[in-house]
């Protein structure tokens, strides 16, 4: 017995020593970094943000030191500083300005960026200069370094008031509130102001502080060795890093570690769906970046033509936007087209009642609405040069094909044009439209680089040669261009048998009751999501009965998404989280509507729709006729280009909410009727 006891003791000591050795040798193998959640909240990425640039630098440092990286997200600056102080992370970053006060609590690396600080107001407010601030409130993000700027300024303007912004606001929300006039004045770093102005033009600078501010990484006071290592890396890499940001050749891309892709925010290239970045071109360039161990940055210029200016000026590395190869584009001396990928045809689209077009000559006298500068425009010009008197209605180059199709369906235009794959994806939305003619020449898409970047062009061509018609390419292409792939319409309401809605009723009731949801509502949602098919998998990656997105499932602790119990539990928990995001001034039913819209399209799009509702004089707390009406506008470029989360499929989100409520009321009435019959 004593012998066995000794063996156990020796075994436990060996296990302890082994684990200690692993920890001893592995403690420097992991670099724990943190930033605020607001800098990574699923916003439509339009350019390289300061926080993104800093994260890339830290990841490059970790790779050079052969360290793994783990990242934590804090709700605000106060929580971020606490993570560092409590020793839960090694480095924090979030465009953190170096101040004497902060130096007392943490170590700072050498500066990674410099900027200036400005005070902004709505573009509608006339005037400029400090005199505007007398007897006025200036809002500032709590715990930000800008407090010291305002305290110094208040010595000059004694009647100026400093107001801390609500803790849930990030800098982008503060700038939005300023642009809409709900906040009169706000203070922000110039780099954030510039990023905001990329998609909204409703603020202006009235005063810029003369001194420069420097931002850096922050470490614990005891992390001198790590600080020395990071500083050594930064002194070596930062000058070249900054220089490489202005270049778009392959060597510069490799040195800085990320590639900048110029694209469009539309339902095919790049968009936010359920809080996740998606799009055919996005998935393709993401695979290219991953193959070459590069980070991906998506950049959305204001218009189609701006993409070429950005590329020429070194603001991006390549254009990937389903750009059709044309003779004119081939001849542009500044740019180089990649090898072709995808085979499509250009189609003439018209109302079903229009007479069929049997030959090119039948186009004579027809007025066709297309975007200026598009491949459709070039094709029609070519027909005109060949003697076919087709009339061209030239539309702004900020418009997207899906918008013009919508307007044609509404009979604003008699004819338009679309790529065959785009019309196939859109046709179910506009059943009154049809393709009346296909131009004879088959077309293909290409990526575009700056001429002279030979190595980058070679890498792209090699990638497209390997990927075109591969399983990945074909699956991704079908994902975005299958007819009605993203649409779920309501079908017959006759799904109840006896008193049962589905065989999953007990599970639905259990989890719905736990989170205080009507179980009939969750049942209606599950029907809309999966038709009660536990193994269902959607075009966007949604899994199981409640079509959980992979990342969402992991965040909710659901590791078996095709297990009905786990799936329903996670889905209802997620609905509960979404519902809690809406304040008490929103009614019970409207909270559920907003939660459903967030579940289907993403919380960010609901925020945009509510903001737009307020701007349009509608009630941001009511779904029907108000936020739903604002949602309709978010699929229009005029509105989506000013939205933080970009364009969305408004019709799908609105129908999703409405269909679930229709079915929910049906289930409720049917259940009550059965109960009365039994009594």
Note the main attributes of this structure:
nine-stranded mixed beta sheet; five-stranded mixed beta sheet; single chain; 26 helices; 679 residues; D-Maltodextrin-Binding Protein, domain 2; alpha/beta; 4 domains; 18% strand; globular
Architecture overview:
The chain is α/β, with parallel strands linked by helices and 679 residues long. The chain has four domains: 108 residues, Periplasmic binding protein-like II (D-Maltodextrin-Binding Protein, domain 2), CATH 3.40.190.10; 95 residues, 3-Layer(aba) Sandwich (D-Maltodextrin-Binding Protein, domain 2); 155 residues, D-Maltodextrin-Binding Protein, domain 2 (3-Layer(aba) Sandwich); 174 residues, Lysozyme (Orthogonal Bundle). Helix content is 44%, strand content 18%. It is built from 26 helices and 23 strands. Strands 13, 16, 17, 18, 19, 20, 21, 22 and 23 form a nine-stranded mixed beta sheet that branches. Strands 2-1-3-12-4 form a five-stranded mixed beta sheet. β7, α5 and β8 form a beta-alpha-beta unit. The longest helix has 29 residues. The protein is globular, with a radius of gyration of 28 Å. About 3% of the residues have low confidence.
């Amino acid at each position: 017995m004593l012998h066995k006891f000794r063996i156990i003791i020796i075994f436990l000591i060996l296990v302890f020593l082994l684990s200690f050795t692993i920890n001893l040798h592995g403690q420097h193998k992991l670099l724990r970094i943190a930033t605020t959640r607001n800098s990574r909240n699923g916003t439509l990425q339009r350019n390289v943000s300061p926080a993104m640039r800093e994260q890339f630098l830290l990841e490059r440092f970790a790779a050079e030191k052969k360290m793994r990286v783990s990242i934590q997200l804090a709700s605000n600056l106060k929580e971020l500083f606490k993570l560092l102080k409590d020793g839960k992370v090694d480095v924090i970053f979030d465009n953190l300005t170096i101040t004497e006060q902060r130096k007392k609590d943490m170590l700072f690396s050498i500066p990674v960026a410099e900027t200036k600080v400005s005070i902004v107001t709505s573009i509608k407010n006339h005037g400029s200069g400090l005199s505007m601030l007398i007897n006025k409130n200036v809002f500032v993000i709590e715990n930000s370094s800008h407090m010291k700027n305002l305290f110094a300024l208040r010595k000059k303007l004694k009647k100026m008031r400093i107001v801390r912004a609500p803790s849930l606001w990030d800098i982008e929300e503060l700038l939005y509130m300023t642009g809409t006039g709900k906040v009169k004045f706000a203070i922000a770093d110039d780099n954030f102001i510039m990023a905001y102005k990329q998609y909204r033009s409703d603020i202006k600078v009235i005063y810029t502080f003369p001194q420069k501010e420097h931002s850096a990484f922050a470490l614990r006071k005891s992390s001198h060795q790590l600080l020395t290592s990071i500083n050594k890396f930064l002194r070596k890499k930062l000058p070249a890093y900054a220089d490489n940001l202005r270049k778009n050749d392959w060597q510069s891309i490799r040195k800085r570690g990320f590639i900048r892709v110029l694209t469009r925010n539309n339902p095919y290239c790049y968009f936010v769906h359920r809080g996740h970045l998606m799009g055919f071109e996005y998935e393709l360039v993401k695979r290219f970046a991953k193959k070459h161990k590069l980070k991906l940055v998506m950049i959305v210029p204001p218009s189609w033509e701006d993409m070429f200016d950005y590329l020429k000026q070194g603001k991006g590395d390549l254009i990937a936007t389903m750009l059709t190869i044309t003779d004119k584009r081939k001849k542009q001396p500044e740019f180089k087209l990649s090898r072709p990928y995808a085979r499509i045809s250009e189609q003439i689209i018209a109302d079903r009642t229009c007479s069929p077009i049997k030959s090119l000559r039948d186009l004579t006298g027809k007025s066709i609405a297309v975007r200026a500068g598009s491949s459709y425009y070039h094709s029609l010009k070519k027909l005109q040069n060949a003697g076919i008197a087709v009339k061209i209605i030239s539309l702004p180059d900020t418009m997207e094909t899906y918008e013009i199709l919508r307007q044609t369906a509404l009979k604003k235009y008699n004819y338009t044009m679309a790529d065959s794959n785009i019309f196939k994806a859109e046709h179910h939305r506009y059943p009154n439209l049809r393709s009346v003619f296909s131009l004879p020449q088959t077309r293909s898409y290409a990526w575009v680089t700056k001429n002279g970047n030979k190595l980058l062009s070679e890498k792209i061509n090699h990638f497209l040669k390997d990927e075109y018609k591969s399983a990945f390419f074909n699956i991704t292409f079908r994902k975005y261009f299958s007819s009605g792939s993203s649409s779920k319409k309501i079908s017959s309401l006759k799904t109840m048998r006896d008193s049962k809605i589905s065989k999953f009723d007990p599970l639905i009731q259990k989890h719905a009751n736990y989170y205080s949801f009507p179980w009939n509502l969750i049942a209606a949602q599950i029907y809309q999501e999966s038709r009660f098919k536990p193994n269902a998998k959607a075009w966007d990656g949604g899994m199981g009965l409640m079509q959980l997105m992979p990342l969402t499932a992991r965040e909710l602790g659901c590791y078996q998404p095709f297990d009905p119990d786990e799936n329903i539990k996670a889905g209802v928990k997620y609905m509960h989280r979404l519902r809690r995001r809406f304040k008490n001034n929103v009614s019970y039913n409207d909270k559920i509507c907003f939660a459903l819209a967030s579940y289907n399209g993403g919380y960010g799009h609901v925020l945009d729709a509510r903001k737009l509702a307020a701007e349009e004089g509608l009630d941001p707390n009511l779904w029907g006729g108000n936020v739903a009406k604002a949602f309709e506008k978010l699929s229009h470029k005029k509105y989506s280009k000013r939205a933080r989360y970009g364009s969305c499929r408004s019709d799908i989100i609105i129908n999703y909410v409405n269909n679930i409520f229709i079915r929910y009321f049906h289930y409720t009435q049917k259940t009550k009727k059965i109960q009365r019959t039994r009594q």
